[in-house]
């Protein structure tokens, strides 16, 4: 059986009017699962092409590119043709631009009542046009304020967590509506996604009045010990959630006492002092080798090059590009990792097909 024949989303067509990361990431995941994704690009190309070829490839493999000026009559007419024969349209732009270009369900339902329209914005379709890049959203939702050491500045992670999370959420909403069998508008905002992902942090404040506190080395609020620890060589992530993990760790490390989760939480400083001193006697790599066979959640801190070199099964080739493949593994299905599209290549393919059919 070919990869295409067994693709979970074979036969699904999605139109993307995507910019930079969040929107293109959402539709690339759908393309990896077999959906036909037509990427609408403005004259001159989508802006992420200017960032670099590898950047563009990491978010747009497996798609087709079609250049349309959506502000023109011809562009609107061509978009209407595509909508009539598609399952969904996904766009990430400012709300005013989405409405001005007619990329909402209300504007497109006359061409296809079953079309699913997904709008990805900073603060919602009715939330205004304030710029909403990833770092801005992390600052606005409390994520930056709760990240970092207690005496240090607010901290941002080393990757675009808000954009990627919103892409995942938008893809889920799009598929949920397709499964429902009805068309409609899906509204996904970066702000709402990040607030949603603060789940237990937000609940603790809303129900118990407990404001988030930073702990050194990224320590968890509830579990002890669960954080990064310096070792004789490198840093170690250790995550002890229950008493069974603690018993196994304490036995290997030669630590006594602190038998229950409640006791470890109440005596946090004492526990961390003992564990820190113990882990300093060996390297992070050695501790990982010693603790992993015991089933303890542990990992030496690695660089990205080190992590990629240790997981060749996660890497794929798409044309001339080496990329990280889909994180969704489906039995019996292997994605067809095609290269990112050349600019406006879909238009040429359509013209060629029409010419051949008329000859």
Task: Classify the helix fraction into a percent range.
Answer: 25-40%
Shape: elongated
User: What is the CATH fold-level name of the largest domain?
Assistant: Rossmann fold
Radius of gyration: 25 Å
Low-pLDDT stretches:
351-359
Q: How many strand units?
A: 11
**The CATH homologous superfamily of the largest domain:** Crotonobetainyl-coa:carnitine coa-transferase, domain 1
User: What string, H for helix and E for strand, traces the elements in order?
Assistant: EHEHEHEHHEHHEHHEEHHHHEHEEH
Q: What report would you give on this structure?
A:
With 359 residues, this protein is of the alpha/beta class. The chain has two domains: 11-196 and 310-355, 3-Layer(aba) Sandwich (Rossmann fold); 234-299, no CATH class. Helix content is 40%, strand content 15%. It is built from 15 helices and eleven strands. It has helices at 22-32, 53-60, 73-84, 95-100, 105-108, 134-140, 161-180, 190-196, 199-208, 243-253, 261-266, 268-279, 284-291, 304-310, 345-358, and strands spanning 13-17, 36-41, 64-67, 88-92, 116-121, 184-189, 226-230, 235-239, 298-300, 315-318, 321-324. A six-stranded parallel beta sheet has the order 3-2-1-4-5-6. A three-stranded antiparallel beta sheet has the order 7-8-9, with helices on one face. Helix 7 packs across helix 8. The two termini are 33 Å apart. Mean pLDDT is 94; it is low at 351-359. Residues 347-359 have a biased composition (Low complexity). This is CaiB/BaiF family protein. Keywords: Transferase.
């Amino acid at each position: 059986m070919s990869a295409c024949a067994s693709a979970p989303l074979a036969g699904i067509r999605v139109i993307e009017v995507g910019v930079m990361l969040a929107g293109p990431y959402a539709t690339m995941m759908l393309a990896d699962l077999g959906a036909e994704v037509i990427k609408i690009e403005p004259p001159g190309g989508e802006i992420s092409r200017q960032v670099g070829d590898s950047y563009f490839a990491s978010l747009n493999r497996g798609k087709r590119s079609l250049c349309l000026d959506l502000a023109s009559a011809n562009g609107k007419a061509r978009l209407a043709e595509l909508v009539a024969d598609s399952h969904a349209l996904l766009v990430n732009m400012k709300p005013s631009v989405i409405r001005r270009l007619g990329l909402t369900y209300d504007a497109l339902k006359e061409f296809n009542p079953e079309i699913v329209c997904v709008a990805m914005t900073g603060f919602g379709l009715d939330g205004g046009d304030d710029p909403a890049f990833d770092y801005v959203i992390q600052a606005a939702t409390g994520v930056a304020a709760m990240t970092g050491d207690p005496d240090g500045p607010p901290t941002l992670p080393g990757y675009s967590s808000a954009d990627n999370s919103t892409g995942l959420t938008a893809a889920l909403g799009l598929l949920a509506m397709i499964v429902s069998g009805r068309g409609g508008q899906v509204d996904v905002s970066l702000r709402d996604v990040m607030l949603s992902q603060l789940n237990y942090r937000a609940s603790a404040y809303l129900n118990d009045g407990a404001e988030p506190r930073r702990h050194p080395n990224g320590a968890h609020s509830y579990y002890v010990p669960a954080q990064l620890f310096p070792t004789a060589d490198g840093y170690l992530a250790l995550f002890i959630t229950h008493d069974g993990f603690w018993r196994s760790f304490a036995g290997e490390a030669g630590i006594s006492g602190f038998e229950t989760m409640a006791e470890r939480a109440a005596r946090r400083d004492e526990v961390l002092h003992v564990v820190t001193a113990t882990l300093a006697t060996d390297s992070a790599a050695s501790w990982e080798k010693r603790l992993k066979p015991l089933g303890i959640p542990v990992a030496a801190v690695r660089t990205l090059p080190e992590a990629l070199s240790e997981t060749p099964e996660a890497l794929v080739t798409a044309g001339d590009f080496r990329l990280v493949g889909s994180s969704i593994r489906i039995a019996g299905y292997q994605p067809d990792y095609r290269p990112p599209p050349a600019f406006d290549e879909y238009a040429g393919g359509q013209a060629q097909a029409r010419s051949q059919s008329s000859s």
